[in-house]
Design a protein that fits this description.
With about 150 residues, the chain is mainly β. The protein is built from one helix and seven strands. It has a domain of about 100 residues: Beta Barrel (OB fold (Dihydrolipoamide Acetyltransferase, E2P)), CATH 2.40.50.140. Helices cover about 5% and strands about 45% of the residues.
């Protein structure tokens, strides 16, 4: 999944040492706002100090976040987690990857929509698939059979 928006908040990075492996870890959360009539906001996180530095997300920049959503249970309650795996920045030439993922992704080819063919001279344009509305019957009763 992906969303494009402006970074409006950067939370403080959190880190620690894994009790199981003894390795250090770091995560940081960000909020983007998706423009529109009713702007939407999304909180997402990036896991790993190397990825946080690699993406180098700054407040106020427009980015496209590619992410996965996962839910986990804790003490009988469920929580959603939105974890970004790639961040793309847009510039004058189009979207440029800020970083790449470890696994290559196949690019989906996009086809341009075919323009509607204009009728040639001498040909009639296509008929409207909906016939014109029937004129109302004169008098007190209409031709419809609605009970009101």
């Amino acid at each position: 999944m992906e969303l494009t928006g402006k970074v409006i908040a950067i939370m403080e990075a959190k880190g620690g040492v894994s009790a199981r492996t003894g390795n250090s870890w770091m995560t940081q959360e960000y909020v983007i706002e998706v423009p529109g009539q009713y702007p939407r906001r999304m909180l997402f996180n990036i896991f790993g100090e190397d990825r946080i530095k690699q993406f180098n997300i700054q407040a106020g920049e427009d980015i496209t976040v590619q992410f996965d959503i996962d839910a986990h249970e804790y003490n009988g309650r469920w929580f959603n987690e939105v974890r970004a795996y790639n961040v793309l920045r847009s510039n004058q030439q189009g979207a440029v990857p800020a970083a790449t993922t470890a696994a290559p992704q196949a690019a989906a080819p996009t086809a341009a929509p075919a323009p509607a063919a204009a009728p040639a001279q001498g040909q009639q344009p296509a008929q409207n698939p909906f016939p014109p509305a029937a004129p109302e019957a004169e008098g007190g009763e209409g031709s419809d059979d609605l009970p009101f």
